[in-house]
Amino acid sequence: METKGFTQDGTVDLRGYEAFERMAFYGIASNLVNYLTTQLHEDTVSSVRNVNSWSGSVWITPILGAYIADTYLGRFWTFTVSSLIYVMGMIMLTTAVSLKSLKPTCTNGICNRASTSQVAFFYISLYTIALGAGGTKPNISTFGADQFDDFNPHEKELKVSFFNWWMFSSFLGALFATLGLVYIQENLGWGLGYGVPTVGLLVSLVVFYLGTPIYRHKVRKTKSPARDLIQVPVTAFKNRKLQLPQNPCQLHEHEPQYYINSGKRQVHYTPIFRFLDKAAVKDGNSGRPPCTVTQVEGTKLVLGMMLIWLVTLVPSTIWAQINTLFVKQGTTMDRSLGSSFEIPAASLGSFVTLSMLISVPMYDRYFVPFMRRKTGNPRGITLLQRLGIGFVIQVIAIAIAYAVEVRRMHVIRVHQITGPKQIVPMNIFWLLPQYVLLGIADVFNAIGLLEFFYDQSPEDMQSLGTTFFTSGIGIGNFLNSFLVTIVDKLTDRGEHKSWIGDNLNDSHLDYYYGFLLVISTLNLGAFIWASSKYVYKRETKEVNEGCIEMESKALEISPLGLQV
Fold this sequence. Notes:
The chain has 564 residues and is mostly helical.
């Protein structure tokens, strides 16, 4: 039923939505490892660890921001407050790299190590940005998806493409950062390199708020949506001695009219995680009513998503190489382009973005319609199939990275290169295939993950559900930091070379890439197993004055998404 000001799926036209410009984040992340080593004089392992720790924090803090949005402030106001914190952090960071008193001093080309206060101010600025990102990252994309009415056939069709084009706009910001900002930082100054995205961030926020009168805001239907995640397993444990009925229809559930009147969506029974079904067993001797099947199924959805989330951590670790070891690897190679121009090593990351920008329209306009005709699935392929294809491409990319590093080590031996600043006579564009393949892989797995976790989350926990995507990237960065530290300590013993030493010309980075290839291949097998156990969400929605029909999400069954 549609009432004045409301769409059928519970969004109301109040204030606005516009894509949040992420150029600021990419402007920092793409070249931070070089700033730490060249300006703050950190060693390779410490700089990689610190970049990963900061990036991990940027992607982990959204858990808090999503909880605040789903439980208290809503997406719009959580984003508003957090964006102000984000801007404050960017201004502080620009100040940190601009004022002489906040930077290490240099005499005759020899620079001192940064003082404790200089390092402290720099990292406080970085982590202020991470705190602000906690409220912007999980809410701006879900706020954008809220602008489409699931119960309007035309808008629902548009929503299928939304996340593809949402990420496309983010890729544009990343492209400018890796091409333009990296060059500015290394040739015109770090202050200007960070000042430009700060101004860009302010402009994007002004544009965002200009659209405020036309936005839709989804009304919260539950005061504490995450409460079921605790209530369901606790109730199931209390009812552990009760017998489950033979027919799931005998489990406790509201009448369909309740969902029609309340505007909530009913989630239907699925035969997985059956130990939780005891939370919905009707027990006349208990003073408290049991949980509903919808509540139980919401908890099952979160558990199922956690299973998928676990097998996304290794791919996120592979992604972390783009802004860390790939960059340091590139600095050792021949970066000359013509007689006078030298390519910044971090700028090669722009090819990740370019391959994404080319692949997204091809995926949305050609691949999806072609596969839709073959499979009958509105998305062309299922969400888990999309992820699986991305993970396979990523395994191929890290295999190529390993092969290229083996080649680089061979060139080093042939030319007897030993110095850390000696340039290996091997063009940096040897690294191009691994960058391009990781960009193509991201069209499948990064966009697919964001859509998967939004689509499969319980209705009132979609911001929190999206943090499965952001936290996976965050944990992947922390995992990479952990692996780099452990591998360095284990391999740098006695006369043995560290795999990841300060001098990459006298290390064994090829061994580390080989290690990543092995765990990526094993993880792909784990993903296929987890996908075979996953059951897609099945909902009932209201149409035509009280009639109800079943969502088709249960039909997304495939070799990579079996319903069991």
